[in-house]
Write a structure and sequence with these properties.
28 helices, 45% helix, elongated, 688 residues, alpha/beta, 12% strand
């Protein structure tokens, strides 16, 4: 989006409501506002997104809408509440919505005032607004590692909501202290007894579930998913909500959250026609646009002198905001969006402190890192727990590595299968399928996208089945750099663990991560030109990429250093200050290419001298994968050698290098010969 001055944009001025009529008055900000009526009552500024209200109404009766944390979801829920609440008076409706887009979409809206009759209101706005019994559920439940405590907290929240609902509408509802879902059904029956219409608004449906997911996953699984003999309270809640369609006539529900994951884990996603984060019609529904911010800056007066920013100063402030807060795109959207909570946080600080304003006006882009701490709001910062959860997934190491490279600017974007943005199960993300971690990696990236740590890249050169994702802005990069290093340390820490306590099985698994696992069941790509030098470059390059992103791991990688009369392949050593605690891992690498294997006498009937041999990759892969370690070592090669012969040769070569390295590191050096055979890896340790 352009950061050109928006002062002439009438559409922008129409979106920003609550601006002071008198230029001498202050622009009022309602930071972290969740109640639309309170915002309007305080005459605070309000970016009007109500034009989407009736689009939501036409889209479906039961909707799920997900957005990153602190992106305005609660204010959207409040908007729906006041628009549909039968207890919203004509006077209150006129005050809250009289100048909004949803009102302007009705002919004659300007004739509806606080003094208008109910009949006149219905003539203009129809029967849907102000016609529902609205039940508000906020599932911000306090979590614990004790499922019984969490369940009790959830029941208390629901029962309190039902009690408030019955009192507000003067309904007779017998609240069951032991069964909040029974209370919910009774509330619906009370509405039906009055021939009423019910609208259930659920805000933060997955907030407590996300906390459980990160802090007590064993409780999450039991609480959200149905076990063999366990009740799943979240699933039961949504089953109850679905069952209300048979209890009360006209019935709607609107649910907001961060992830579609919890609703999927509850195995109940079919109840909602999902408004996924990439749904084009609603891509720009929440968030500020650059013209909105320009309009606000034009209206603001700073300090006792009521200073007005000139065009260059406004451009400079907008440039700072764009680098730090802009960049959020949702699939199919027309705008790069600013995080609304962070934007109000910044503008309010700018409005209240001349020192802060002067600092921003003097700020140079090269010093962005110095500004990160004052540009951030702890309520919006990405939680370490999200990155730690990703690092624990089967493909989380790869996903976090991709994310780190995006943060470091080494990658412009990553590709993601668009289907992975739809509801998926936590277990699907956490596990691998037949040792294939690609799906887990993709779901891990989707999780980061839903949390706002990644965002869509428009017009990227990807297929129609894929989306491109990148880090949205400078602030996310600056705040994530240390977090991703800390989070991934548990995953990349296995690299340090290989150095400190290496063993053959762990080393095999580690090397196979680079070369041994084909993606999504596709055949491995056997390159007859692949040599030891390419294997060495791939491993060293990958490890050094990790260490640039995660310097706290405390490991150094060296290659092609002289040792004795030759040069070793790879040396990985710890960097402990105490020399007695340092450890080193020495690797001598070898490659057996598939075209070197003699398949005579096997079930692989292929002429490797023929250019079309690669059509038989699947058969070759199946053959190699089915061999035991002993059988793999006995595989004959063209020319009379065996795989074991290659491994022994590398093992002997390693002896001289290991002796030289041990002169520097003592007996704390472990040395291994590592040979890649197609997609298989064999290793042998060189004893001291």
């Amino acid at each position: 989006s352009s950061s050109s001055s928006p002062s002439s944009s009438s559409s922008s001025r129409a979106r920003v409501l609550g601006l002071p009529q008198n230029s001498d008055d202050d622009v009022r900000f309602a930071y972290s506002a969740c109640d639309l009526a309170a915002v309007r009552r305080q005459r605070a500024v309000f970016v009007d997104n109500t034009s989407y209200v009736q689009s939501l109404e036409c889209t479906g009766k039961h909707l799920l809408f997900v957005r990153p944390p602190r992106f305005g979801k609660s204010l959207l829920v409040s908007t729906l509440r006041y628009f549909y609440d039968r207890n919203t008076s004509v006077q209150q409706f006129a005050h809250v919505f009289g100048d909004t887009a949803v009102a302007r979409s009705h002919d004659g809206y300007e004739t509806v005032t606080a003094a208008s009759s109910e009949e006149h209101f219905r003539d203009v706005f129809g029967d849907e607004p102000r016609s529902y019994y609205v039940l508000m559920l906020d599932l911000s439940v306090k979590v614990s590692d004790d499922m019984a405590v969490v369940e009790r907290n959830m029941h208390n929240v629901i029962n309190e909501a039902v009690e408030g609902f019955s009192s507000y509408y003067h309904l007779e509802v017998d609240v069951d202290e032991a069964d909040s879902l029974l209370s919910l059904r009774r509330a619906a029956r009370a509405v039906a007894a009055r021939d009423g219409k019910l609208y259930i608004l659920v805000d933060e449906y997955d907030r407590f579930a996300n906390k459980l997911m990160h802090e007590a996953p064993h409780v999450y699984e039991r609480f959200v998913q149905r076990g063999n003999a366990l009740s799943a309270p979240v699933r039961d809640l949504f089953e109850t909500m679905k069952s209300l369609r048979a209890v009360v006539g006209p019935y709607r529900s609107f649910v907001t959250g961060i992830l579609p994951l919890t609703i999927a884990d509850a195995s109940f996603s079919d109840h909602f026609k999902h408004l996924y984060i990439d749904h084009p019609r609603f891509a720009d529904m929440l968030g500020f646009r650059v013209d909105d911010l320009g309009t606000l800056l034009c209206a603001m007066r700073f300090g006792d002198a009521r200073r007005v920013l000139d065009d260059d100063e406004r451009e400079h402030v907008l440039d700072v905001m764009k680098r730090f807060y802009n960049g959020y795109r949702f699939r199919g959207g027309s705008h790069e969006l600013y995080n609304p909570t962070l934007s109000v946080f910044f503008l309010k600080a700018l409005n209240s402190s001349n020192v802060f304003l002067d600092r921003i006006l003097r700020h140079d882009e090269r010093d962005d890192a110095l500004l990160a701490s004052v540009m951030s709001d702890s309520n919006v910062q990405a939680a370490n727990s999200v990155l730690h959860l990703v690092s624990c997934a089967a493909g989380g190491r790869e996903a976090a590595h991709c994310y780190a490279r995006l943060v470091q600017g080494e990658l412009k974007h990553v590709q993601l299968d668009a289907e992975k943005l739809k509801p998926f199960h936590l277990a699907t993300m956490m596990r691998s399928v037949d040792q294939n971690t690609r799906a887990s990696k993709q779901y891990s990236l989707a999780l980061l996208q839903h949390h706002g740590l990644l965002t869509h890249v428009p017009d990227a050169d990807v297929s129609v089945r894929h989306v491109a994702l990148t880090v949205p802005n400078r602030l996310t990069c600056l705040l994530s750099a240390n977090e991703v290093a800390d989070a991934i340390a548990a995953s990349v820490g296995d690299l340090r663990q290989f150095v400190v306590q290496p063993d053959a099985a762990r080393l095999v698994d580690f090397v196979q991560r680079f070369f041994g696992v084909p993606e999504e069941g596709a055949p491995a790509s056997y390159d007859q030109h692949f040599k030891e030098s390419a294997m060495q470059a791939a491993i060293v390059g990958e490890l050094r990429g990790y260490l640039r992103a995660y310097p706290r791991v405390g490991v150094r990688v060296l290659s092609q250093q002289q040792a004795g009369s030759g040069y070793y392949d790879v040396l990985v050593h710890t960097t402990d200050a105490n020399e007695s605690q340092r450890r080193a891992l020495l690797l001598e690498l070898g490659v057996v290419r598939v075209d070197q294997i003699d398949f005579t006498g096997t079930n692989v009937k292929v002429d490797l001298s023929h250019p079309g041999w690669r059509w038989h990759e699947r058969r070759i892969e199946t053959f190699l994968g089915g061999l035991s370690d002993g059988e793999l070592l006995a595989v004959k090669l063209r020319g009379g050698r065996t795989v074991d012969g290659v491994l022994r040769s590398k093992h002997e070569q390693l002896g001289e290098y290991a002796a030289s390295v041990r002169e520097q590191y003592g007996e704390r050096v472990r040395a291994f010969a590592v040979v890649l055979v197609g997609t298989r890896v064999v290793v042998r340790e060189r004893a001291a």
